[in-house]
Each structure stands twice: as C-alpha cells, then as structure tokens.
Amino acid sequence: MAECKKSSLSPASHPKTRLLVIHTGGTIGMVYHNDVLSPPGPNVFVKALRKLPDLHDEQYARGPPENTLVLPLCKQNKRIVYTVLEYSPLLDSCNMTTDDWATIGKDIEKHYEKYDGFVILHGTDTMAYTASALSFMCEHLGKPVILTGSQVPIYEMRNDGRDNLLGALLIAGQFVIPEVCLYFHNKLYRGNRVTKVDSGSFNAFNSPNLAPLAIAEVDIKINWDTVWRANTTSRFRVSTQMNRNVGLLRLFPGITAVTVKSFLQAPMEGIVLETYGSGNAPDNRADLLEEFRNATERGVIMVNCTQCLRGSVTTSYATGKALRDAGLVAGCDMTSEAALCKLSYVLARTDLSIEAKKKMLSQNLRGEMIADLQGAKLTLSDGDDLDEATKSLSIS
C-alpha cells in the first residue's frame, strides 16, 4: 500500500490526525508458545510496532510517549499520530460478552473529543458481532470507528496483520467516514453488514448484501454514495445497555415443536429465527406455527432472517407469509449477527412498548438493512444487486 513516505520536514509543516487504537486482543498481537497462540506480556505489541518502519517513523517521532506512534507522512501530507490503549488481560474474541462491548463503547465515549477517529484491534471469530453491536450502541456517531485484526500475528514473516492495521489507520486518519466499519484484506465494510466466511484465508470477511465502502489498492477509493451519515446534530453518546435474553434459532428439516418451545421459554425475550430461502418456514407444521404464535402473545419478539448468505426476506411465498401472520418481524437483508445485536439493543429500551420495539426493528437504524433508504444513498453496482433491491422494495 503506497500511501506513506519518509519526510525530513519539520513537525509543524503538516497537519496531524490523532487516532486512538484500542487493542482488545486477537491473533494480530499473539505469539506462539509451545505451538499455541498466546497473549504476549504488557507493551510487547507497541514495542514491536516501533520496530516496523511502515507503522512508525522513529526519525520523525523523536521520542513520543511510550504508547504513542507516528506513521510516515501520507499522500495527503498528513501525519497520523496514534496512541495505543491496550486491555489487560487481552481477550480472545471467543470470550467476548456484552460487557466487553460496553467497555469498548465507554472507552470510545471517554476519548471521543480528544481523537479524530478510532481503530479497534479485535479477534476475527466474533468481530462481526462486535462491529454490529457497536454500530447500534454508538448513537449520533460523527467520526470513524474501524475494527480490524488478522489471521496471522504481525510477528510472523508472512502475515496480514501489518497491512490490515496500516490500512485501518490510513482510512481513519484521512477520511471522515462516520460509521462503525470493519477493515480486512484491502476492503472497508460497513460493520453491521459483514460476516466471517473463511477461517483459513486472508480474505476472511464478506459483506453479502452491500458493496464495500472503500477499496485500498494503488489508491484508496471511497464509495461516498454508500457512506451512511446520520441526519442529526445531536451529541454523540454510547448506549451500553444490551439485553442478554436473546438468541439465534436455526430451522432445519424435522425440527420438533418441543425443541422450539424449549428454546422460547422464559427468560427468552427475543430471537432471530434463521429460515429457509427468502424467509420461509414449513406452513404445514401447525405445531411449530402455534409455538411461534404463543411466544409472540407472551411478548417474545422474533426477527425473521434468511439462512442464505445473500438475499432478503420477503412474503412472496405462502410459507413466508405464515411466519408474518404468526407475528414475526421481517429482517429483510440483515445478517444474523446484525439482527441479533439490533434485537439486543432495541429490547434494552425499557421506555418503549412491544409494538414500538417491533416498529424500531423494522426501521433502518444504521444502514444495516435495505428496508428504509432514508439517511443514505445506496449505489447499486450491478444488475443482481438491483434485482435484489427491487424485490425487497416491491418496485417493478
């Protein structure tokens, strides 16, 4: 990525962008110990970054604070200065909970005025969940928040961590993209649109229903028409209340009503139902539909999402209409990760009635679905995308 260059000019010659890097853990900073990846000691990660000329210009910096580093001069003649806030202990993303999401959110809120953007280093296994959750928790966001990580630690000779970190820093430091995003393998995605699709490739993430916000090749190209901008001037805040009584239930041929009934028992307050195709479930299973109706009447809110990687939930088939009639909310083209986090966020709103919560779930809050285009202009790059959109919006 040819974006930075060495400079002998004085520090006052160039504008500076200040970023906060929140290192939560993940493979990017791990080291091998007895053939097992383990967290290193305190500040080892920052010390390693200081030795990498692409990630720290030692000659220019001349002794900044211990946890602050400086990128070489960028194409736009900007200096990107970044400070690393390292969690202790570092977390494997598999161990992440809603409490950890709240901790990250609070740190963004605490330092929001001091920095121009934020980069969050995170393990890949649950990064899509954290990106989705933070997109809803961060209300009235006006600065970039970019999650990234790696499949291979930066200490290895062949790794993707250095490019991913550098790309995230360059985009957060040079462009005002006021979204929670995920940067991986030269692509910037909307955070609540991604899912992990490959555990053994550097190209580990995909955004099935929305094109990348940016692609970093020889130059960084931003698709500004797709960037989400909140229509508000309200003060930034982080809502850390998330309802834990939510779950994912995947339909499969032969699933029993007993299984569904058990899953829907208290204290469950909301589920994402992963259905077939365009949001279909068997309409000849009165026992299943009865359990869904009973749960709805008890106040359990259910969101209907497709098991397919691409596409949207519709009611074109009788088998999809049966779920709508049972009280399920259409999840349109949301990923399961986004739907679950959105459900957790909305259910935590104790000031809203059940009907108001259902209405909120049907609205496009952060660009997570295509149901409501207010707040952003979406660029449809090919005929397939246009076809999917017209089906979703019932436009001929």
Number of helices: 11
Strand fraction: 15-25%
Rg (C-alpha, Å): 22 Å
Class by alpha and beta content: alpha/beta
Helix content: 25-40%
Largest sheet, spatial ordering of strands = 5-7-2-8-10-11-12-15-16
Sheet bearing the most strands, described?
A: 9 strands, mixed
Q: Spans with pLDDT under 50 lasting ≥5 residues?
A: 6-11, 372-396
Shape: elongated
* Cα distance spanning the termini: 43 Å
How many distinct beta strands? 21
The average pLDDT value, as a whole number, equals 89
Short recap of the structure:
With 396 residues, the protein is an alpha/beta fold.
What features would you describe in this structure?
The chain is of the alpha/beta class. Helices cover 27% and strands 22% of the residues. The strands form six sheets. It has a nine-stranded mixed sheet, with helices on both faces. The chain has a four-stranded parallel sheet with strand order 18-19-20-21, with helices on both faces. Strands 1-6 form a two-stranded antiparallel ribbon.
Please supply descriptive tags for the structure shown above.
21 strands; alpha/beta; about 400 residues; 4-stranded parallel beta sheet; disordered C terminus
